[in-house]
């Protein structure tokens, strides 16, 4: 703990003392059912982060009123029927010495439902990023919201929670009320700065009337909307000062962004880690309330520096503790190198909940399944086996880790001199270097667990059988398919792997054929464009990057549209000849010829490498295959499958 002089010291928030400065930040996880009641699965999700050592857990926002539900999976905060089930959240968190606060929100003009039944706003106007208009709230609507916040706060207290937080942040009614852009009312709830703040101020007072003055009450506050039309940090600080002046607010939980600047709410890997610490630091200079920092704070050393520099009093983490709930305990025990760091891909977490699907993580299969796969659930095998794993990509590494943890003797055969498989290639693409964190973590794990690694070994049937294994796991991955069109065998036609590995002679004008819609295509397009090449992306999809998480896609477009990139959606390439290609409209089937291209690059599907699996099948007591050797997929599905196989061995 010598490197952590601040992070693991207690801190007092009002009359509540938290054991350390690590805060699990609130975020919707879609783990509840659609009946508005808390769920056991949800409770164990939060308990896992308490078990992992976080000092304070702040539960995601629950709805203050029925009109404030952003999803059918939002808990009915106004309904006292939630109290017994909600008590389990508090009990489970308290078992591990952590504290838990509950957040309250009204979605206002933002929603995850498409289309929504009815959206509320201070003024009738949609969020600029939304096609859905709103109802301008009447005074009775406003009163219902005030009462709903107060009831919800009381229900949290009655359920044994240690404090509450209201959301004046990205997806919420209260942020739109304090916004000069969204609030164009002419009554007592609009116009002047004081009038725009009237609704949150009345809510604060109503909550105090219900829970008393000793119950911590915080504000999750958007300090900068990061839009051309919204407010900036200067205004955000004025909001914080006004809340402090009430004398009724206990702390400020900093935040930024709106649904129209979604990529700054939950920023992807292209946004630097710790990007928003400066906001909390600026706020700390002018107010005395405790400040919780946020903004891609990924590891404990980074968090310690935030505190040591005096930029905040506590450090908020969300995705970092989704990826590894044990981050606090590992840091406290001097095991920083063993932390499974978030890579900010957003594919497993925020992209899922945006679609109202249960939260996941691409390299922590236990997310959303904590009771089955979480801390302490991995048991030693009844019978210890000698296991050979062929292939050191993500699937082979993960199954090796889990098998070794269960006490098996594991030998891993890798044909190259490095482990990591296709992840090594993907990590070479622009802003994807952190992607390698998935396999670099697993490599550390298998090495520390004593897995024997045979490098530079092409596994043949006799290679494996000579090791006398009890079980063989084939994780040999996949290979790219060729293009099945006339002209695909020309010397100037390459797949994306040729480009990434540096085996392609790419000219100045490139026709890129995209059947992928994800980073395998988009990343190579950006790579080529940054080399001052003209790239025309032809895809049958509706738009380039169709399968990317929206925040990643927006930031990709911000970059490539400043480069020499042309996009031709709704077309597929049917033939290549010399420097020209025939492309066909997917809907009209009209064909046109485009020419003047030096090089053609394509991204399409892969095919499984499974020859060794079939050669060994029936010749060894147990033969399995895992990952791309079964079916080429995204890394999340591969890791999950490898975890389950490792547990079954």
TrEMBL record:
Keyword DNA damage found: no
SUPFAM superfamilies in UniProt: FAD/NAD(P)-binding domain (SSF51905), FMN-linked oxidoreductases (SSF51395), Nucleotide-binding domain (SSF51971)
Keyword Oxidoreductase: yes
Gene3D superfamilies: Aldolase class I, FAD/NAD(P)-binding domain, NAD(P)-binding Rossmann-like Domain
Record-linked Pfam families: Oxidored_FMN, Pyr_redox_2
InterPro entries: Aldolase_TIM (IPR013785), FAD/NAD-bd_sf (IPR036188), FAD/NAD-binding_dom (IPR023753), NADH:flavin_oxidoreductase (IPR051793), OxRdtase_FMN_N (IPR001155)
MF term (GO), any: metal ion binding
Cofactor(s), names only, from the UniProt record: [4Fe-4S] cluster; FMN
Keywords, comma-separated and alphabetical: Flavoprotein, FMN, Iron, Iron-sulfur, Metal-binding, Oxidoreductase
Domain FAD/NAD(P)-binding intervals: 386-600
Span of domain NADH:flavin oxidoreductase/NADH oxidase N-terminal: 7-334
Family: In the N-terminal section; belongs to the NADH:flavin oxidoreductase/NADH oxidase family.
Protein name: Mycofactocin system FadH/OYE family oxidoreductase 2
């Amino acid at each position: 703990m010598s490197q952590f002089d601040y992070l693991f010291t207690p801190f007092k928030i009002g009359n509540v003392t938290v054991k350390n400065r690590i805060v699990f930040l609130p975020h919707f996880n879609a783990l509840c059912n659609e009946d508005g009641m808390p769920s056991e699965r949800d409770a164990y999700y939060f308990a896992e982060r308490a078990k992992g050592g976080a000092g304070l857990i702040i539960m995601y926002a629950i709805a203050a009123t029925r009109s404030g539900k952003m999803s059918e999976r939002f808990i009915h905060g106004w309904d006292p029927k939630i109290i017994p089930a909600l008590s389990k959240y508090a009990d489970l968190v308290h078992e591990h010495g952590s504290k838990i606060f509950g957040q309250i929100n009204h979605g206002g003009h933002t929603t995850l439902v498409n289309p929504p039944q009815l959206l509320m706003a201070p003024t009738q106007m949609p969020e600029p990023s939304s096609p859905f208009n709103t109802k301008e709230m009447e005074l009775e609507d406003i009163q219902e919201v005030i009462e709903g916040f107060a009831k919800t706060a009381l229900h949290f207290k009655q359920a044994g929670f240690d404090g509450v937080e209201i959301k004046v942040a990205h997806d919420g009614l209260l942020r739109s009320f304090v916004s000069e852009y969204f609030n164009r009312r002419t009554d007592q709830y609009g116009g002047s700065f004081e009038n725009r703040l009237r609704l949150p101020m009345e809510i604060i007072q109503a909550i105090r009337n219900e829970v008393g003055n000793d119950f911590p009450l915080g504000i999750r506050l958007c300090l900068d909307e990061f839009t051309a039309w919204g407010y900036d940090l200067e205004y955000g600080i004025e909001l914080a000062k006004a809340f402090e002046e009430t004398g009724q607010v206990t702390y400020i939980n900093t935040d930024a962004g709106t649904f129209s600047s979604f990529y700054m709410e939950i920023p992807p890997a292209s946004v630097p880690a710790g990007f928003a610490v400066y906001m909390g630091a600026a706020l700390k200079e002018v107010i005395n309330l405790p400040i919780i920092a946020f903004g891609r704070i990924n590891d404990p050393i980074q968090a310690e520096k935030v505190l040591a520099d005096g930029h905040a009093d506590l450090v908020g983490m969300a995705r970092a503790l989704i990826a590894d709930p044990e981050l606090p305990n590992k840091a406290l025990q001097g095991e920083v190198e063993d932390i499974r760091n978030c890579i900010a891909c957003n594919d497993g977490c925020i992209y899922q909940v945006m679609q109202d699907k249960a939260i996941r993580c691409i390299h922590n299969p236990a997310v959303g399944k904590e009771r089955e796969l979480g801390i302490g659930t991995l048991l030693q095998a009844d019978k210890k086996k000698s296991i050979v794993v062929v292939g050191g990509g993500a699937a082979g590494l993960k199954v090796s880790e889990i098998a070794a943890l269960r006490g098996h003797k594991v030998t891993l055969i890798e044909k190259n001199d490095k482990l990591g498989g296709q992840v090594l290639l993907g990590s070479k693409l622009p802003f994807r270097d952190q992607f390698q964190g998935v396999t670099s973590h697993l490599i550390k794990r298998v090495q520390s667990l004593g897995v024997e690694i045979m490098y530079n070994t092409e596994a043949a049937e006799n290679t494996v059988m000579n090791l006398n294994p009890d079980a063989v796991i084939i994780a040999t991955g996949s290979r790219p398919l060729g293009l099945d069109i006339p002209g695909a065998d020309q010397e100037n036609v390459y797949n994306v792997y040729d480009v990434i590995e540096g085996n392609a002679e790419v000219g100045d004008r490139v026709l890129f054929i995209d059947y992928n819609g994800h980073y395998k295509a988009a990343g190579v397009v950006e790579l080529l464009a940054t080399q001052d090449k003209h790239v025309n992306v032809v895809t049958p999809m509706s738009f380039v990057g169709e399968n990317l998480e929206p925040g990643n896609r927006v930031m990709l477009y911000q970059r490539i549209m400043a480069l020499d990139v042309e996009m031709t959606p709704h077309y597929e390439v049917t033939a290549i000849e010399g420097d020209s290609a025939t492309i066909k409209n997917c809907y009209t089937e009209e064909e046109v010829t485009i020419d003047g291209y030096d090089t053609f690059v394509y991204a399409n599907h892969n095919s499984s490498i499974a020859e060794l699996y079939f050669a060994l099948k029936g010749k060894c007591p147990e033969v399995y295959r895992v990952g791309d050797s079964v079916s080429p997929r995204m890394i999340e599905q591969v890791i999950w499958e490898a975890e389950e196989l490792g547990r079954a061995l």
